[in-house]
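Repro:
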Amino acid sequence: MSGETLLGLAEEQAALRRIATLVGRGTPPEEVFAAVTETIGRLLNGHLAGMARYESDGTVRVVATWASAGPYGGSHPLVPGPWPLEGGGVSSMVWKTGQSVRIDDYRGVPGSIARFVRDELGVNSSVASPIVVEGRLWGLLFLHSKSADEPFREDTESRLTGFTELVGTAIAGAESRAGLARLVEEQVALRRVATLVARGVPREEVFAAVVEEVARLLRVEFATLGRYESDATMTTVATSSKLDERFPVGRRWSLAGMNVSRLVFETGAPARLDNCPDAPGLLGTAMHESGVGSSLGTPVIVDGHLWGVIATSSRPDQLLPVDTAERLASFTELVAAAIANTHSRAELMASRARIVAAADEMRRRIERDLHDGIQQRLVSLGLELRMAKATVPSQLGDLEAALSQVGEGLSSVFDELREIAHGIHPAILSEGGLGPALRALCRRSVLPVELELQTKQRLPESVEVAAYYVVSEALTNAAKYAHASVVNIALHAQDTGLRLAIRDDGIGGADRSRGAGLVGLSDRINALGGTLQLTSPAGNGTTLLIEIPVQDHSAALWAPL
């Protein structure tokens, strides 16, 4: 082996070590690409060197270039692209064979890349080797010569291979790091949405969060969530901020024409279109006007049925990555969970509302039976007893006294029964409404009550009954346990809801878990979609804050989601 060969081998080994050091440090791929192209250009006596990446759309794009100084160059000319993989240039040959290739004479070589290399760059011969990343063809490393009489050495391809292996390692490491970072980012985004679902926030908030997270995570231009309707249309239920005007929430769309929403509706599977600008129909036209390169839709399946679609779109000059559908799948599952949870909560609330309504109806029936039956019978017996007492001879004083005693007992029983009937379901509540019923309740209270009423209209019966029993229970508790001197009650009712605040100045320390009364009231209010908050610090009185939305609580609560 000659001294010149040994020197060249030593230089090559030193160059490989320098590149390997960059790779080992985790240097960004772009810096590795630049270093490799310059190294092989100088080391292998090329005039131009470069690296190119194969794209998923059947093109090749140059990612790094180098040009020698001296009579052949200086700075490398601009290389347009991406280039179609056609003709007989080294990019097409490596793509077809997966092996190292060379062209010793460009005369007669067909294809746009070959014409550019020959006519614009003045190249006469080229050598290229494939870059393989984890078993897949990623790109190529190429070397050009402008010399007509000095072709590359026969071992040039094999010498390129050592560098392509280092490039493949650098790319694999960078992709691994990027994949890990992407996975972490994706899990964080999913966790944010999952937290909303677990907290039971309104589904509209979940939907809005999903499309914003999808748009941000996938770095797509647009993201929307649509719900399929029974008439084969689709309603936009959430949209990323850039689409607010063209795809407003609540707008219903025809699925006519070629669009991913229609394809998902017909197949129940993910669908993709890479020519959205040419797609006909209202949706296709809207996407074209919004500026879209490619679109992908993923179905949302709820309880085994197709509910809707999450659609994403890229910029006009970009194609969506091939794994977009796979990455969207986790978000569609969270949307489905949110919808299913909402459905379950609606069914639970409807069930609880029916139970409360049935209990109230039973109370009214018992109160009506007591009033129309037993109480009337007691009144009749009382009258008959007085008539019998009036007929007793004066000489039977003991009998008269006994009848008087029975009459007093009967009157006492009647008063107790009337009080019980009133507590079961006060007639004044049904007849006069919440205001008069609360005033009557406060008048009977053993504690002074300061009552503030701001309501000018009748509320749904279920709301009035719930508010009445909350006040009744609070007055009873304040008298029995709180040792309060006064109770303040403020009721504010309007079209959208009722707000009730009850405060006493007692000893505090109330705990809803230690008594069935407040638990039952809380269940009643929750069944109406309301809330009950208890604040009772020791020594500082007790406060109840109740809010109940005013709506048709008698209607079924499981309207189509």
